[in-house]
Design a protein that fits this description.
about 220 residues, about 25% helix, 2 domains, Gyrase A, domain 2, elongated, seven-stranded mixed sheet
């Protein structure tokens, strides 16, 4: 664990340089321990791929004091009971009607559209972090056979609930927004919901699978075209 000053009231803890489920497990164990402790003066705790961001009250702590607290917690988190990850199955309507880049991704890899759908929906993804916007879960990792770079020119408006990939990452746009990821389909589920814990259907550490559904089922579940 390396600590870096991120702001006058923030410390960034770095645990690695590459996407790694073991590193993520370690970060999330520390995150859960800190959240459970409800440390007075800790304002925000944000886990990411390889880092943990701590925002604190600078009237109460120095950066050195926060780093010391983190070392104490890290020294004992391996003795904490493991928390089984939540598992979620997300229905997706994969079709060029909503999957604007489905055909282009298939062509780029010399595969058929059905093969792209099978490869994308045929594995379990881990939610590594929530970022970019509320409810936007960064998931990994996409099968190498369909890993596709971001678009050269991002779009101004991506429809809400669009399921997309960029390189080996996967995500779902919770709301209409600009974006440069390759869109494969759309889910009828709401990703951002103020009534949910953290306002998000997805949480770091979740295990996610995608279930292909047809147009009729998509509409029945509340999907919008």
């Amino acid at each position: 664990m390396r600590s870096e000053i991120a702001a006058v009231d923030a410390l960034l803890l770095r645990f690695g340089e590459a996407i790694d489920p073991a590193v993520s497990d370690h970060i999330l164990a520390l995150y859960r321990a800190l959240k459970s402790a409800e440390i007075t003066g800790f304002i925000e705790i944000i886990p990411a791929y390889t880092t943990l961001y701590i925002q604190f009250d600078p009237r109460r702590y120095t950066h050195e004091a926060v780093a010391s607290i983190m070392q104490e917690y890290e020294a004992r988190i391996d003795r904490e009971s493991a928390v089984a990850p939540r598992t979620l199955t997300i229905p997706v309507y994969y079709d060029t009607e909503v999957g604007w880049d489905l055909e282009q991704v298939a062509d780029a890899h010399d595969l058929g559209i059905e093969e792209i759908i099978a490869l994308h929906s045929g594995r379990t993804y881990r939610v590594y972090m929530i970022g970019f916007m509320p409810g936007f879960g960064y998931m990994g990792e996409v099968d190498d056979r369909i890993a596709t770079p971001r678009l050269a020119t991002p779009r101004a408006d991506i429809p809400a609930r669009s399921v997309a990939i960029a390189n080996t990452q996967c995500a779902i746009y919770p709301m209409v927004s600009p974006g440069g990821w390759n869109i494969l389909g759309r889910t009828p589920l709401e990703l951002f919901d103020p009534s949910l814990k953290g306002f998000s259907l997805l949480r770091p550490g979740d295990q996610v699978t995608f279930e292909p559904i047809d147009r009729e089922r998509f509409l029945e579940l509340g999907g919008e075209l």
